[in-house]
Write a structure and sequence with these properties.
The complex is a heterodimer of chains A (269) and B (354).
Chain A: E1 6-15, E2 18-29, E3 34-38, H1 45-52, E4 59-64, E5 67-68, H2 74-80, E6 81-84, H3 96-107, H4 113-126, H5 142-154, E7 160-164, H6 172-189, E8 192-196, H7 200-206, E9 209-214, E10 217-222, H8 224-227, H9 230-237, E11 239-245, E12 251-258
Chain B: H1 12-43, H2 51-59, H3 66-100, H4 113-127, H5 129-132, H6 136-162, H7 166-190, H8 193-203, H9 212-231, H10 233-239, H11 243-248, H12 253-275, H13 281-293, H14 297-321, H15 330-353
Helix pairs in contact in B: 1-3, 1-14, 3-9, 3-12, 3-13, 3-14, 4-6, 4-7, 4-8, 4-12, 6-7, 6-12, 9-12, 13-14, 13-15, 14-15
Classes of the chains: A alpha/beta (269), B mainly alpha (354).
Chain lengths: 269, 354
Amino acid sequence: MAEPMLHLDALCVRYGARVVLDGLSLAPVEPGTTVGLLGPNGVGKSTLLRALARLASPTGRATVGSFDLLYGSRREHTRQVGYLPQTLPQPSSLLVYEAVRSALRATCGGLSDATRDRRLQQVFTRLRLHPLAMSPLDRLSGGQRQMVGLAQVLVRDTPLLLLDEPTSALDLRWQLLALEAVGEAARQRGAIVLVAMHDLNLASRFCDRLVLLSADGLVADGAPADVLTPPNLRRAYRVDARVERTASGDYVALAERAIPDEPALACDN
Amino acid sequence: MSTTTPVSPSSLRLRYRAVAARRVGALAALACVLVTLLVVDVSTGPSPFPLADVVGGLFRPDGLPLEQRVILWDVRLPYALMAVLVGASLGFAGAEMQTVLNNPLASPFTLGMSAAASVGASLVVISGWHLVLWNENVALSLGAFACACVATLLIVWLAWRHGATTETVVLFGIGLMFSFEALQWLLQFIADANALQQIVFWSMGSLARSTWGKIALLTCVFTTCTLWASVDVASLTALRAGDEQARSMGISVERLRLVALARISLLSATALSFVGTIGFVGLVGPHVARLLVGDEHRYYLPGAALAGAIMLASASVLSKTLIPGVTLPIGIITALVGVPLFMLLVSRRRRLHG
C-alpha cells in the first residue's frame, strides 16, 4: 500500500479581522520528508501547524492520504497527527517516564503492554532520555523539558508530525541530537514532518524541503539550495544575507545587514 | 543540558516498577494509619471505652451492654466513618480541582461551594423550613446541597459560555465566593439570636449530624465519583504537563474541565451539606499526596483521598481530646491544624525544589 501524501490547498486562517494565512497551497509532501517552515515572526508558521492540529479554525483543504485533517473524525485525527507546541511541558511532580507514557495512554488506548513498552524504550533511546527517566519535570531545565515534549510526540508514532520550534530551548549538541532523532523517525516510519524553525542553517541541514513564508505569503518552496538564496532572504526577512556552501554540502546563511524600513508615506487629507 | 551515566534501556520498565512499588507502599501505609485512627477515634470520647471492647463490639455487637452498644453503633461509629468519608471526598475533590484548574491553591472553597452551602443552610434556618420539612437535620443538608448545586451550575454555565479556561473558572469562582459570603453576612445580620446561634454552629463544621443514612448516601456518591474519575485518569495525568500539551494529544481540555467540575461539585456539595464548613482538607490533602506519591493520577487521587481522610479523622480525635469533656467543632480543628501543616508543606517543597 502506498504511504499517504500530505496535500495542503488554499488554507486560510484569520484571527478576527486579521488574516494570518491567506490561501496557502503547497506541492504534495512525500512520506518520509521533513519540511522546514521558515520566515520572520508573525507570518503564520505556528498558525499553519496549529490549524493542522485543529487548534485554530482554518478554511481550505488539508489531507493526509484520504484523511481530511480539518474535518475528519477527532479520534482518527489524534491517530494521524502528533503536534509539539511552542510551550514547554510545565514543571510538575510528574516523572519524565510518566509524562511520556501519559501521552501514549491518553491517545493510543488499545495498545498492548509489549507495544507500549517497545515504543517507550525506542523513544527514550532515540532521544537519550534514559538518565532522566525517573526525574520529576520540576527538576529539569527548560531544554530537558523540551526534549520530554518531543518524546511525548514521537512516542505516538503518528504519520504526520507538526513541530513548532522544537529546538528553541536546546543547546548546540541537543539541537543536533533532537533533529537527528526526528529525521530518523521520519525516514524509518515514512512519516511526514512539518517543522517551524528560525535557525536557517539547522533547517538547511536537516530538512529535505524548505517553505519560506513572508508577510505577503509564500516566497519559495523547494530544496534548501533553491530556497536559501539572497533574493529570497531579502524578500522574506528584509535583510541582506550571504549564502555559502560548506565542505559537507550544507548551506549556511549569514545575515549581514537589516534593510531599513521604508518611511511611511505622508497622507494628505 | 547535561546527562549522567547512561542506563541500560532494558531497565526502564523495571526502574519504574520500583518507583510504583514505593508508591503503592506509601498508599498502603496511609491506609494503615487511617484504620488505626478510625479505631482510636471510635474509642475516644467522654465516656471510657477500652480498645478491646471497641474491637469486640464491632464484630459482636450483642456482646456489649446496651448502653455501650448504643454509644458505639449510633454515635461513635457513624461520626468516625463520616469523618473518614468527608475527608476522603474533600481530599479527592481538591486533588482533581488542583489538576483541572492547574492551581495549587484550588479546593472546594475556591469555587465558592462552601460559602454557597453555608448560605443554603442559613436560609433554611431563617425561613423556618427546618421545622416544616421532615426534620431539622435533613432540611439543613438539603438546603446546603441545593445552594452548593446552584453555585456549581452557575460556574459550569458561565465557564461553558465564556470558554472553560482556568482563569475564567477561578475568577468566576472567587466572584461567587465573595457574593455568597456577603449573602451569608446579610442572613446573619437579619437572623434572630436563636437562628444566629444555629447558623454559626453549622458554619463551624460538625460531625454531630451523622447518621447511617447519610453515610450510605455519601458512600454511593463517593464510589460513583471515583469510578467516574477513573475513566479520565490518563487525561488528567497528561494535563499535568500543561493545557497546550494535553490539547496537542487530542484531549478536549475544556470538556475534561467541565466534566471534572461537575464531578467535584457533586462530591463536595454532598459532603459539605452533611457536616457544614470544613476547610483546608481539600487544600492540604492533595499536597501531602503529591509529596508522597507524585502526580501520576493512578496514585495521586487515591493518595489525596487517604490523606484527606487521615486529616479529618485526626481532627475528630483532637476535637474530643483537646478539652476534656468538650467536643469542639471539627471545622475549627482542621483550620487550626491545617494552616501550620500547609506552611510546613510549602516550606518543605521549597527546600526540595530550591
